[in-house]
Structures are given as structure tokens and as C-alpha cells.
Specification:
Arc Repressor Mutant, subunit A, SH3 type barrels, 5-stranded antiparallel sheet, 4-stranded antiparallel sheet, 39% helix, WH_DNA-bd_sf
Length: 332
């Protein structure tokens, strides 16, 4: 794989890489040229040149079972207390931006800088600290595709430039279209970008992994006023759009307790019954996503409104009966 002059696979210019190596040496022991090269995404030969450059800058580096710093007194400690350090470390390690390719290296460099600049008191406390909190953000991101396209889309958003997409839509299959990207968002386990689609003549939500190819055009566009993540997704259950519809569901059994104890939508209302059931009411844009959610509760959820959703669920129920109660495992 070839990289632009002065850059690595993580997008590090040489100056950034030298700082990154310096921070690695302050936080980790017995680092060989091979290990440093792997962290930086360059060859060992490049690391040897980098170490020489640091030495020529009067930074005291020596080798004994790995590269080490003779002193780190020339770099001041960051003024983080232990709780601030823990919070920042959790945020950096759990960020979905690791999957984008572009920001994986950036997050690693930030982490190295944070670790290298901790006060001695925080370092001592960290040695015996228990990792009490863990954050596991589920993602379904295809990293190779994200690494290929994320940076291009972000640049188009920043520079207000149009994109030509080869896009594999779930509904319409592969199409070629020109879009005006407004923002990127991580939502529902994946990265999406919202753009005005010139093919469909409206704002659309595009999933990053469904992009097959992309070209950054020279043509600029003027973004639509008032299009923000909050305004665009207002009223959606997850990602979907459409006309607002009021959905009323009666939950029973354990499902009533589960739904009653957690907020699922900012505009929801819940009414508990004397027999332990729960009437859940919410107005959302489009029915498909909330309908899939209802199906997950089985016979402990009964849709009261709207009739269209009741009819859809009845049709799905008949399919289940025909498929699983016909005595024919293969269906009809």
C-alpha cells in the first residue's frame, strides 16, 4: 500500500508521528522498532530515521531491551484528576470513530498524549485502580468500507461539495446519484449521512456501508436552512421518516415491566393499569421501525392503534401460522 509523502496509513504527517512516538516512549516500556512501526503504520526503517531525528533534537533516547527516554522532565504533566482521566479514557476507547479508519489513528494519538502527560499522583493511583465501568457500543460497521469512504464524505460536508454515489439501496437496488451531504451521524449501530438527493428530489438518509463507490465533485452547493440532526430525526423511532402516526400499544406480563422501566422515545406516554398492564402511546414518523419493535414482544404486546399496523401484524401472523403450523418445514 502506498501513502502520500510524509503520511502514514493513519494519516500522520512526520511531525505528528514524532510526537506520537515520543508519547509512546513516555507511557510504554521495551518498545522495539517493529512495535513502534506497527503502531504508526510505517516501516521499521522509517522508525529508525524518526528516532535519529528525535535524538538530533536533543531528546534523550537510548536503547536497552527496547527504546526508552532518559528523562521526561521537559514535558509538563496534564492537569487531569483521576476521575477526569477515567472519563476521558472511557470516551476515547469506546468511540465508534475507531471504525472510520480516519479517526482510529487520531484517537490513539490522543490517548498516548493523555497517558504521557498524567501527573505522578494519577499514575500511582492508576496502578491499583479497578476498571469498574465498561462501555460497549454495538456497531455493525464494515471497517474497510468505512475507512475508504468516511473521510471523503466528511470532506464533502465540510467544504459543501457534491458527491456522486454508487449506492446499493435496500428498496431500489444499485443506483447512481448526485447528492448534497449535510451531516454525518452515528445512530442505530452504524454511521449514516443525510444528504439532499437530486435523483429523488428530497433529503435522504444513506448508510455508509451501502456506498459502493464515491466521487468528490468540484461543484459546490448551498445547504438547506434548518437541517440539523435534531430537526431531521425529530419524531423518528430510529431513522425512519414519513407522516406522523400515533401508535397505541397495550403491554402485559413481563413486557409491561420492561417497557415501563425504560424510556424508548422522548415523546412517549405510559399509563399503568390496575392489573399490571401498560398502555404505551407515542407519535412517530412512519410505522415500520416501531412495528419491528412490537413484534419482539410476542404475545405480550397488542397494538390498539393505528388500524394499518393492526392489519400488518395480522398479515404477518397469518404468515407465521401458515409457515410453522402447516406441518411443512419448508413453507407452502
Amino acid at each position: 500500500m502506498f501513502y502520500a509523502e510524509g503520511e502514514t496509513s493513519m494519516g500522520m504527517a512526520k511531525y505528528d508521528r514524532l510526537l506520537f512516538i515520543l508519547n509512546l516512549l513516555r507511557t510504554r516500556r521495551n518498545l522495539t522498532a517493529a512495535l513502534i512501526a506497527k503502531e504508526c503504520g510505517v516501516t521499521e526503517r522509517s522508525i529508525y530515521r524518526d528516532v535519529l531525528a528525535l535524538s538530533e533534537a536533543n531528546i534523550p533516547i537510548y536503547y536497552h531491551n527496547g527504546y526508552k527516554l532518559a528523562s521526561d522532565l521537559f514535558l509538563p504533566a496534564l492537569n487531569f484528576d483521576f476521575d477526569e482521566y477515567t472519563c476521558l479514557k472511557l470516551a476515547l476507547e469506546s468511540s465508534p470513530l475507531h471504525k472510520t479508519g480516519k479517526y482510529d489513528g487520531v484517537l490513539k494519538r490522543i490517548g498516548a498524549k493523555v497517558e504521557s502527560g498524567l501527573s505522578q499522583a494519577v499514575k500511582e493511583r492508576r496502578k491499583n485502580a479497578v476498571d469498574a465501568t465498561h462501555i460497549d457500543i454495538e456497531t455493525s460497521i464494515e471497517e474497510k468500507r468505512a475507512a475508504r469512504f468516511y473521510g471523503v464524505i466528511e470532506r464533502a460536508v465540510s467544504e459543501r461539495r457534491c458527491l456522486r454515489l454508487e449506492y446499493d439501496s435496500v428498496e431500489s437496488g444499485e443506483t447512481s446519484r448526485v447528492v448534497e451531504p449535510h451531516f454525518i451521524i452515528f445512530r442505530g449501530r452504524a454511521f449514516y449521512f443525510v444528504a439532499y438527493c437530486r435523483l429523488r428530489k428530497e433529503l435522504r438518509t444513506f448508510r455508509l456501508e451501502r456506498v459502493q463507490n464515491i466521487d468528490l465533485l468540484e461543484e459546490h452547493f448551498t445547504p438547506q436552512q434548518g437541517v440539523t440532526p435534531d430537526s431531521y430525526f425529530e419524531g423518528s423511532w430510529e431513522l425512519g421518516g414519513g407522516e406522523p402516526v400515533e401508535v397505541v400499544i397495550r403491554f402485559t406480563g413481563h413486557s409491561a415491566k420492561r417497557v415501563g422501566s425504560v424510556m424508548h422515545h422522548p415523546k412517549e406516554t405510559k399509563q399503568k393499569g390496575r392489573n399490571g398492564d401498560l398502555v404505551y402511546r407515542v407519535t412517530v414518523r412512519g410505522m415500520e421501525e416501531i412495528q419491528r419493535w412490537v413484534l419482539g414482544f410476542g404475545d405480550e404486546a397488542r397494538v390498539l392503534e393505528p388500524k394499518r399496523m393492526r392489519d400488518n401484524l395480522a398479515r404477518i401472523g397469518r404468515y407465521y401460522v401458515d409457515t410453522y403450523c402447516s406441518g411443512n418445514p419448508g413453507g407452502k
